[in-house]
Amino acid sequence: MFSKYLSTALISLATLRSVHGASTPKRRATCAGGQSVQNEACCVWFPVLEDILPNMFDNECGDDAHGALRLAFHDAIGFSPSKGGGGADGSIIVFNNTELTFPANSGLDDPINVEVPFIQAHNVTPGDFIQFAAAVSLSLCPGAPKAGFMMGRPLPVAPAPGPDGLIPEPFDNVQVILARMADAGGFTPTDVVALLASHSVAGADTVDPTIPGTPFDSTPELFDTQLFIEVQLRGTQFPGRDPGQGEVLSAVAGEMRLQSDHLIARDSATSCAWQSFAGNQAAMQSAFAKAFNKLAIIGHNPANLIDCSDVIPGAPPLPASMAPHLPAGQTQKNIEQACAASPFPTFTAQPGPATTVPAIPQS
Ligand code: HEM
């Protein structure tokens, strides 16, 4: 956790680059590195990009990229029209002494520790940096859509309300999660399912702390639709000795299934949306990008922000060898059909002995 000194230092440094759309000229510009952007205010982000790709993320869709994506969600979702909070405002960093005590934020000290030195070095607001880093992290995950990025979030004025309630937990039921997401950002049930595509590049460190880095699907380095296929399979095992709170049986050795993902895949409000993304990379990409761009500006008036999406690189496509599939050892019969409107799409199992997924290497 951070000292008061660090939070104060972040506040004073970041004041310099708390840019607001309304006061910044809008014209196409060429940045010092030769890049062309819609708005010259966006040029400050190229040095940040060139620094964090190799030095923060090691140019890979690994633990730090996953952590940056989760951090962006937990900062943004801390908002409610009735309870307050600033949304995507960087409060999770500036007021980390408060927000990291919320149980739902367990484990986020890691990505915060990783990000703070880069925020200080580049003198940008924590709210902007968190969302920028998440958008850039996606560009490292093959198969991810290109996320947008808006700059201009001012410094946060207060911590998000807590400790319980605003951040979904894996042991919350579907109605609670859908209501929370609707309240925070007007997300529809389909938006929520689309946002969970992020769990295709993810794992858990704290649900079962004895097995850190346990992935949620068999391809945590790819932003693919395997999560939507694998969570629909009948669960048979836990990756650790005892299940953690909010964990249910998973179908694949070495893989963890969150109860929330499991229930959302099977609830009548969400199961058809869940099924619609299984094997449909294009539909999943476009629904995720739309919902994620909305998430990134919770708590802000877009008219006060500058669109710097042209700074964000696109991700490589999925490798041709990674078509949607059942993990080895599975059959279509193990799919637990939930959507009443149409059958789950058919997939072929990979050949060979039953898949065992290795843990995600920890940074
Ligand atoms: C809405 C319901 C959601 C619930 C209940 C939920 C819950 C969780 C839990 C329990 C973990 C494991 C944390 C740990 O033990 O380390 C996790 C990881 C993660 N979540 Fe979610 N999540 C939700 C939505 C989202 C959304 C909307 C995003 C992003 C847009 C997201 C991104 C991630 C990522 C990237 C990780 C992996 C972090 C890492 O590997 O370090 N989640 N989530």
From TrEMBL:
Query: In this UniProt entry, which cysteines form S-S bonds?
Result: 31-43, 42-308, 61-141, 272-339
Q: Which cofactor does it need?
A: Ca(2+); heme b
Give me the residues that bind Ca(2+) 1, please: 75, 87, 89, 91
Q: Which GO terms describe its biological process?
A: cellular response to oxidative stress; hydrogen peroxide catabolic process; response to reactive oxygen species
Can you tell me which residues form the catalytic site? 74
Note the PROSITE patterns from the entry.
PEROXIDASE_1, PEROXIDASE_2, PEROXIDASE_4
| Enzyme type, top EC level | oxidoreductase
Residue positions binding Ca(2+) 2: 200, 217, 219, 224
Which residues are marked as site: Transition state stabilizer?
70
Name under which the protein is recorded: Peroxidase
**Localization (cell):** Secreted
Signal sequence bounds: 1-21
Q: Which organism is it from?
A: Mycena albidolilacea
Where does this protein hold heme b? 199
| EC number(s) from the headed UniProt entry | 1.11.1.-
Give every Plant heme peroxidase family profile domain span: 124-312
Q: Which UniProt keywords apply?
A: Calcium, Disulfide bond, Glycoprotein, Heme, Hydrogen peroxide, Iron, Metal-binding, Oxidoreductase, Peroxidase, Secreted, Signal
Q: Molecular function (GO) terms listed?
A: heme binding; metal ion binding; peroxidase activity
CDD domains listed in its UniProt record? ligninase
GO cellular component term of the entry, any:
extracellular region
Kindly state what the record says about how the cofactor is bound. Answer: Binds 2 calcium ions per subunit.
- Membership in a protein family: Belongs to the peroxidase family. Ligninase subfamily.
